[in-house]
Amino acid sequence: MAACAAISLISCKTEMTNPLLTESALRYEAPVFDKITEEHYLPAFEAAIAEGKKEIEAIVNNPDAPTFENTILELEYAGATLNRVAGIFYNLNEANTSDRMQEIAEQISPMMTEYSLSIMLNGELFNRIKEVYGQRESLNLDQEQAKLLEKTYKSFADNGANLSPEDKEKYSKIQEELSLATLKFGKNTLSATNAYTMHITDEAQLAGLPDFVKDAAALEAKNRNLEGWVFTLQQPSYSPFLKYSENRELREKLWKAYNSKCIGGEFSNLEVIRQIVALRIEAANLLGYDTYADMALKDRMAKDAPTVNAFLKNLLEKSMPFARKDVKAIADYARANGFNGELMPWDFSFYSEKLMKEKYSLNDEILKPYFKLENVKEAVFALADSLYGLKFAEAKDIPGYHPDVTVYDVTDASGRHMALFYADFFPRESKGGGAWMTAFREQSFTKDGKVEKRPHISIVCNFTKPTETEPSLLTFYEVTTFLHEFGHALHGILAEGRFPSLTGTNVARDFVELPSQIMENWATEKEYLASFAKHYKTGEVIPQELVDKIIESKNYNSGYSSVRQLQFGINDMAWHVLTEAPKGDIVEFEKEAVKACALMPDAPETAFSPSFGHIFSGGYAAGYYSYKWAEVLEADAFQVFKETGIFNKETAEKFRREILSRGSIEDADVIYRNFRGRDPEPDALLKKFGMVK
Questions:
Q1: What's the average model confidence in pLDDT over 554-566?
Q2: What is the reported pLDDT for 6?
Q3: Does the pLDDT of residue 627 top 80, yes or no?
Q4: Which of 117, 126, 401, 489 has the maximal Cβ count within 10 Å?
Q5: How far apart are CA 611 and CA 602, in angstroms?
């Protein structure tokens, strides 16, 4: 449900107006982050939940016969204040959290679960919805209205509205426990990541590390009031160490620390996983499904677990020969260069990086000087301009939620305001790992359809920080990550439509990665790279030979990378096709689930499930396959750009019109066919990565 009117003012402990409960006076009603404090959240949630419940009561108690307008439309806009408060709190709890924020999250979790269930399990409300749904053929609804009605009815039916009173009570208890368990999982993962450091004081132990890695580690040590160098489990610290360190013992130590996060100890997630899996199965069973996957997949493009598992198995079978070839090439190279042991996971990045440099005269140390963050950012904005006519102007009058955050006013070629865009690039202890896009506000119109509310979009990343001597210089992987998250952002920025629950990224999980993954293709296009990659010191445009090397190397280790990603998806499905939670060892369950993906010897007491936030605290449960699924879509779709020109405005306009602006007004397979003129070719991805025999 989306939302509408706000209550005027509420007092908090400071006896001041709560900025979360009043419409912002800033341009485009931007959140007043400079006025919001942690103590505003709890009273704001309490007031907003109370208001939302009154709005639902008004719908239920309406004496008039149910109509689209007095039931479905009112429901779509009920809870506006709560949506605003929650949109800010939950996003910041991931991007800029604190101990107090996490305490508040635990306090409001049962409140939010109870509120949601009080709506979804409200029999009188569902009866009104059913009555309108039963008349859908005679209501003369337009396409958006018809889709909203269908989505509303299905949402209630799929979330327990048809359950008996006894089962509704059980379902409510399950959802409350599940909410707290997933919250605990994420909290443990962040805490475990922040708790570990590898402190080095002997410079000899830094052998092989480039200056940019050592400088970042020195700055990390300085910020912690320590001598020497500090390495953490944050990607900009962890990944370069594994790539460059000549100290195999320390590589192993750091790799094992990263891959044993939350396995035992203070921040263990082992029993949390068991609890989450059991609760998901119990909820699915109550709703009439054998497994959680059966319940989660029915409204996605894939439709069911057998289709997903067949898809993953087919890709794995076709990828494995190429992956084994990749690993053998690395192992042979290592042996030829004096390595006498068995190639282990903590050796792969190190020797892979060396072989890549030898084969292509290319590595991050060579490329980073050409990818200054500011230049990359301007190039990403310029690409959005070339394709979609978008302009990004810094909005200095609109505050971010942290000093690292920059806010932009996005307009199109006609000058129309399209969105506010919040960019948050650097790691910090208050931020979760990885990279993601989110929205503080979805695209919508007011309930009367007269005033448009353009979206507030954010991307959150963990890129290489500036040091005391150098600006932020991105790895090539970080460049592609930027493009990926920006693709999600474009999906939000270019959204059109009246109803917030149907716009932007509110689409099937296995479709949502298409707009993000297609953007990564530009990173290996010669014309685009040459337009912005300039040496941060000399201003020299990246040499053509380096551009050629980037393009030549784009399929380097593609088989290995494909299997690695498939491993995550196969593991996810293994957890979610269960009919009961495993009673045995959680780590061993994972190892058995992904043994078909094994390319190197197993490392005991390591597993990725205990910190696999995507599926245990994020929204990708029974959905991680969607990355590979959408890769097939984007590989097929990008061929249109390749055929017509990577900056072709007509192709871009069609992609915008048929995909980026449509939200979920139609089923994803229909939306894709409207763009491509046909279904995707199943082998498009294999062809793209050169994995066709």
A1: 96
A2: 31
A3: yes
A4: 489
A5: 18
pLDDT at residue 61 tops 60 = yes
Say whether both 399 and 527 belong to one domain.
yes
What is the pLDDT, as a whole number, of residue 218? Answer: 97
User: Mean pLDDT over residues 169-189, rounded?
Assistant: 96
Dihedral over alpha carbons 214, 220, 221, 223 (to 10 degrees): 150
Task: Please identify which of the residues 365, 485, 525, 631 carries the catalytic annotation.
Answer: 485
Mean pLDDT of the chain: 95
- With 0-12 / 13-18 / 19 or more C-beta atoms within 10 angstroms meaning exposed / middle / buried, residue 190 is buried
Residue 331 lies in a domain: yes
Evaluate the CA torsion angle 561, 563, 567, 573 in order and state its sign.
positive
One domain, residues 474 and 382: yes
- In degrees, rounded to 5, the angle at the alpha carbon of residue 669 between the alpha carbons of residues 664 and 671 is 55
What pTM was estimated for this model as a whole?
Answer: 0.92
Tens digits of residue pLDDT in 374-422: 999 999 999 999 999 999 999 999 999 999 999 999 999 999 999 999 9
pLDDT tens digit sequence for 430-443: 999 899 999 999 99
The count of domains in the chain is 4
Q: Which residues have a Cβ under 8 Å from the Cβ of 606 and sit 6 or more positions away?
A: 256, 259, 260, 263, 587
Would you say residue 10 has pLDDT above 70?
no
Contacts of 483 (CB under 8 A, 6+ apart): 380, 519, 520, 522, 523
H/E stretch holding 423 reads strand 417-424
Distance from the Cα of residue 64 to its chain's centroid: 43
Helices (H) and strands (E) counted in the chain, each on its own, are 27, 9
Please determine, for residue 550, whether its predicted confidence score (pLDDT) is greater than 70: yes
Same domain, 483 and 583: no
- Catalytic site residue 681? no
Q: Which two tokens stand for residue 665?
A: 């007004």
Half-sphere exposure of 507 (CA within 13 A, CB side): 30
Residue at which a domain ends, from 590, 619, 648: 619
The answer on 377 and 342 residing in a single domain is no
Residue 525 contacts residue 646 (beta carbons within 8 Å): yes
Nearest to 454 by CA among 493, 404, 485, 405: 493
Condensed to tens digits (0 to 9), the pLDDT of residues 99-148 reads: 999 999 999 999 999 999 999 999 999 999 999 999 999 999 999 999 99
Which domain range does residue 329 map to? Answer: 279-368+559-619
Question: pLDDT: is 524 or 9 the higher one?
Answer: 524
Q: Does residue 546 sit within a domain?
A: no
pLDDT band at 90 (very low <50, low <70, confident <90, very high): very high
- Burial bucket for residue 37 (CB in 10 Å: 0-12, 13-18, 19+): middle
Evaluate the CA torsion angle 180, 181, 187, 188 in order and state its sign. Answer: positive
Q: Are residues 383 and 469 in the same domain?
A: yes
Angle (CA) 260-330-314 rounded to 5° is 75
Residue 187 included in any domain: no
To which H or E segment does residue 430 belong?
none
Q: Establish if 283 belongs to a structural domain.
A: yes
Report how far residue 634's alpha carbon sits from residue 624's, in angstroms, rounded to the nearest whole number. 16
CA distance 562 to 688: 12
Q: Are residues 407 and 490 in the same domain?
A: yes
Q: Is 232 helix (H, G, I), strand (E, B) or coil?
A: strand
At position 312, the amino acid (one-letter code) is L
- The CA-CA-CA angle for residues 584, 110, 609, to 5°, reads 30
Which 8-state DSSP code applies to residue 620? -
Rg (CA), the chain: 25
